[in-house]
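User: I'm new to structure prediction. If I give you an amino acid sequence, what do you actually give back? Let's try with this one:
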Amino acid sequence: MTEFVTSADGTVIAFDRTGEGPPIILVGGATQFRAFDATTIELAHQLAARGFTAVNYDRRGRGESTDTPPFAIEREIEDIDALVTEVGGSAALYGSSSGAALCLWAAATGVAVTKLVLWEPPLSLPGEGDDGAWLAGLAQRVAAGDHESAAEFFMRDMPPEWLETARHSDAWQTMLEIAPTLVYDAAVLERAQHGPWNELWATVTMPTLVIVGEQTLPDFPPVAEALVAALPNAAQRRIDAANHDWEPGVMADAIAAFLRGGFPRPDGPKRVG
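Assistant: Good question. You get back a string of structure tokens that encode the predicted 3D arrangement of the chain. For your 273 residues, that looks like this:
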């Protein structure tokens, strides 16, 4: 049954709570929300079966959640903070793709995060950013009301077949409807270009696991390695996954093992699995 929590600016955030045990909040990436993302719903059920309370929510502007302009990354952080308060005052976070960057900003800002799990954050490596050009171009298209152009622009650096598959799928119309929220994902990624990661995320001291797929795209492993090097208490794991997709059972096993364990060890290796 859908539940609702009110964020600091009055935005209503819709979520499902599944299972009983230590809470983990699932933070979606671009276009992800409950009615459009059966894989994350299954992940929530898999985590519940492993003894956790999984909270799967619609980020603002998507699904049953409302939105309150003007947008700022801080508003999305407040949404996560409201969910953390709702589930008891502290929680682990799992971030998928651009949602992983949002998790990092939430943890850095002081949200009561116990552990972080980050799935293939699509960040630009330090020194390789575009000084905000991608974000600005996307925002211009959204402001002009050209949602199709915005969605295409957002996916411009992804494998071309991903865009073609999306354009010819039943999901394309939904993607166009929520295209304005793509600016939110671009913003959380662009902010990582504003300084060295070890400085931007110096306060992200909780145990953090960065996960990439064994058959992933070439951009993700270097980013994972750079994050592990920059974060105070992080390690990397590879799982059986490909093309930015994963199986719920495989991901649930990796998350549950990390949440239950004492890893990463301060004197241990920076990579496992």
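You can read the tokens as a compact description of the fold. Here is one thing that stands out. Residues 3-123+196-260 form a domain with the Rossmann fold fold (CATH 3.40.50.1820).
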